[in-house]
């Protein structure tokens, strides 16, 4: 393909994206404390944040990061394997293992890198991977990259998963891969049933607790703790970029598994380590999460109020979900974008999610709450939403 042909191909594909109302523009965003933000100069109530426990702006995290910056500088300078694993990385991995109740933990530069790297390292061509259809893109990409046979199942209908597990013969590994909390729906994986199936068919169960770490469970370990199955899950992946309020991914488990990952996972071996200051802030955040459990209580109170209110609306679909992620299914991408724009004019930033992030016909507003949101914020949001729905949905 020559240079002009390449340019024409790019322009043609961009036109198709725009014509389908799927074009994504870049905007300038500034986070503020208290569940607020500034977007392209406009101050908004931020209903799109994954900072569930309102820790990213906490002065204690900022102070910890500032002190580590002065001590260690900005970057880690190398991969953790070569020379980038500082005392702060060591401390955070130790603290994560204690937090998760495991022998050891290993850090990754992002949750995406953790999922992509771990799945593709564990699975190979002779293995079979069973992937939930609503899994995060990083898990799906890891399954594909592994070269393993891929089977897709639905967590709300595990009959197919059982039938596919029954079909597998031979020496290859069977690996079940799932999010614990699905990021676009807010629905919960049936971890008890998945553990039962994994044990029945001698499969490895791998779960990503990205949207559950810090929120679910008596101590905030995640949904596996909430459901009492943490000890039955072989591979537990988490992220530091959501409720923990910082950056990075991690895996918690046995010392042997962590040593194996250290030696086998390419996204960890060949990535520059997390900045030491980020590790210092994450250490502080884990302490706060365990000490200030009222943050989780407030978060779930806000979520229950808003979900109950939205479920009374007959002009939208609110799927069954739990926790701070609440989707409003609008189906049409144009309507979704129109309502999101009108909500922004009214002072609210809400994620407008369209294909290919979600399946065709399920375009949605994705509300994501934090414990910083006030009751008054949510009541005003509901009024603005009702006005916009009347213009865009009821009038059609």
UniProtKB/TrEMBL annotation:
Gene: bioF
Pfam families according to UniProt: Aminotran_1_2
Subunit text: Homodimer.
Record PTM N6-(pyridoxal phosphate)lysine, positions in chain: 242
SUPFAM superfamilies reported in the protein's UniProt record: PLP-dependent transferases
Entry protein name: 8-amino-7-ketopelargonate synthase
Ranges where the Aminotransferase class I/classII large domain occurs: 44-385
PROSITE patterns: AA_TRANSFER_CLASS_2 (PS00599)
Catalytic activity: 6-carboxyhexanoyl-[ACP] + L-alanine + H(+) = (8S)-8-amino-7-oxononanoate + holo-[ACP] + CO2
Listed cofactors: pyridoxal 5'-phosphate
Similarity comment: Belongs to the class-II pyridoxal-phosphate-dependent aminotransferase family. BioF subfamily.
Record EC number: 2.3.1.47
Biological function: Catalyzes the decarboxylative condensation of pimeloyl-[acyl-carrier protein] and L-alanine to produce 8-amino-7-oxononanoate (AON), [acyl-carrier protein], and carbon dioxide.
Keywords: Acyltransferase, Biotin biosynthesis, Pyridoxal phosphate, Transferase
Pathway(s): Cofactor biosynthesis; biotin biosynthesis
Example GO BP: biotin biosynthetic process
Class of this enzyme: transferase
GO molecular function, a single term: pyridoxal phosphate binding
Family annotation (InterPro entries): Aminotrans_II_pyridoxalP_BS, Aminotransferase_I/II_large, AON_synthase_class-II, AONS_Archaea/Proteobacteria, PyrdxlP-dep_Trfase, PyrdxlP-dep_Trfase_major, PyrdxlP-dep_Trfase_small
CDD domains in alphabetical order: KBL_like
